[in-house]
Design a protein that fits this description.
The complex is a heterodimer.
Chain A lengths: L3 E3 L3 E4 L5 E3 L1 E3 L5 E8 L3 E8 L6 E2 L6 E7 L2 E6 L8 E8 L9 E2 L3 E5 L1
Parallel strand pairs in A: 2-12
Antiparallel strand pairs in A: 1-4, 3-9, 5-6, 5-10, 6-7, 8-9, 10-11, 10-12
Chain B lengths: L3 E2 L4 E5 L4 E7 L6 E7 L6 E7 L4 E4 L2 E6 L4 E6 L8 E12 L2 E6 L3 E6 L1
Parallel strand pairs in B: 2-11
Antiparallel strand pairs in B: 1-3, 3-8, 4-5, 4-9, 6-7, 7-8, 9-10, 9-11
Classes of the chains: A mainly beta, B mainly beta.
């Protein structure tokens, strides 16, 4: 069964810490995405990548960066965690040409910044 | 500017009845529309999709209807079951350059099916 795996289900970090969220997919998908989900705000795109070493800003990139050194791995980095970055973070991947089935999502990482 | 809108944050339906979830969009360049279902503490999972050249797609208890002139789509669940209780996201796909498609999501509708 194909999957997108996020390394942690729950994380608690302190304000000011550097936080790494890891995502790995085993479907040889070209595209990978990071979203955050907050009540009443839906899914908001942080960053995405269409290829190795390539990255594009989404709708809310401030306070975040990403790294994609290998096709299967896409990392989200919180340079200096703040309490307003407490959220559910979702990684997704997709085939370049695939519209009909959209994205495959990971199970999410619930991050709490204290 | 929200290109995909789900105007109802929540919906409650009795078990066995029909659930109708609505979605409106503004971008006429969208070529596919998708519905995702999300349980708490899990990632969204793909439910059903429809091409912009069709007006209906059915998969078991789930049917999606598309009205292009009104820029409106809806998801019908018949009959509704308690296990359908989840947040449903409407999404629309458009070509975004670099040979790829990108989804734009609505804010979601929380469906509660009451036994």
């Amino acid at each position: 069964d194909v999957k997108v795996t996020q390394s942690s289900r729950y994380l608690v970090k302190r304000t000011g810490e550097k936080v790494f969220l890891e995502c790995v997919q085993d479907m040889d998908h070209e595209n990978m995405f990071w979203y955050r989900q907050d009540p009443g705000l839906g899914l908001r795109l942080i960053y995405f990548s269409y290829d190795v070493k390539m990255k594009e800003k989404g709708d809310i990139p401030e306070g975040y960066s990403v790294s994609r050194e290998k096709k299967e791995r896409f990392s989200l980095i919180l340079e200096s965690a703040s309490t307003n970055q407490t959220s559910m973070y979702l990684c997704a991947s997709s085939l370049r040409q695939d519209s009909l089935y959209g994205y495959t999502f990971g199970s999410g990482t619930r991050l709490t910044v204290v | 500017d929200q290109q995909v809108k789900q105007n109802s944050p929540s919906l409650s339906v009795q078990e066995g009845r029909i659930s109708i979830l609505n979605c409106d969009y503004t971008n006429s360049m969208f070529d596919y529309f998708l519905w995702y279902k999300k349980y708490p503490a899990e990632g969204p999972t793909f439910l059903i999709s429809i091409s912009s050249i069709k007006d209906k797609n059915e998969d078991g208890r789930f049917t999606v209807f598309l009205n292009k002139s009104a820029k409106h789509l809806s998801l019908h669940i018949v009959p509704s079951q308690p296990g359908d209780s989840a947040v449903y996201f409407c999404a629309a796909s458009a070509y975004s350059g670099a040979g790829s498609y990108q989804l734009t999501f609505g804010k979601g509708t929380k469906l509660s099916v009451i036994p």
